[in-house]
Write a structure and sequence with these properties.
Length: about 120
């Protein structure tokens, strides 16, 4: 699968969907321009139908929607749920990122430009 969910991410997503009464929702992931390293990730529960052209994947009954442009940057990525001293959150491990930022939601691909000045992280 182009985007894989870890077991912990699946469990957290199912809990989140149940608590928000969106048990039929999908996880929508995308890449947007901006962020302190040039590109940034976005994730949200989407309780609508997939948009035209979306790639739709299902893993352990959790649906994932991703648009074709975002998939170019995220192919092979893994979505995980991480619990640390700052609290829990979803994290994307992207093999296409040659540089990522200390904030954890911004990255740069080969040939891209950007830096980490705005979130205080280093190169």
């Amino acid at each position: 699968m182009p985007i894989t969910l870890t077991d912990k991410a699946i469990a957290e997503l199912k809990d989140l969907m149940t608590s928000q009464e969106k048990t039929d929702a999908a996880l929508r992931v995308w890449v947007a321009g901006g962020g302190c390293s040039g590109l940034s990730y976005g994730m949200a529960l989407d309780d609508g139908e997939p948009e035209e052209g979306d790639n739709v994947y299902t893993q352990d009954s959790v649906k994932v929607y991703v648009d074709p442009l975002s998939l170019q940057y995220m192919d092979g990525s893994t979505v995980d749920y991480v619990d640390d001293v700052l609290g829990g959150g979803f994290k994307i491990d992207n093999p296409n990122a040659v540089q990522s930022c200390g904030c954890g939601s911004s990255f740069q691909t080969e040939g891209g430009e950007g830096g980490c000045a705005s979130c205080g992280g280093g190169h």
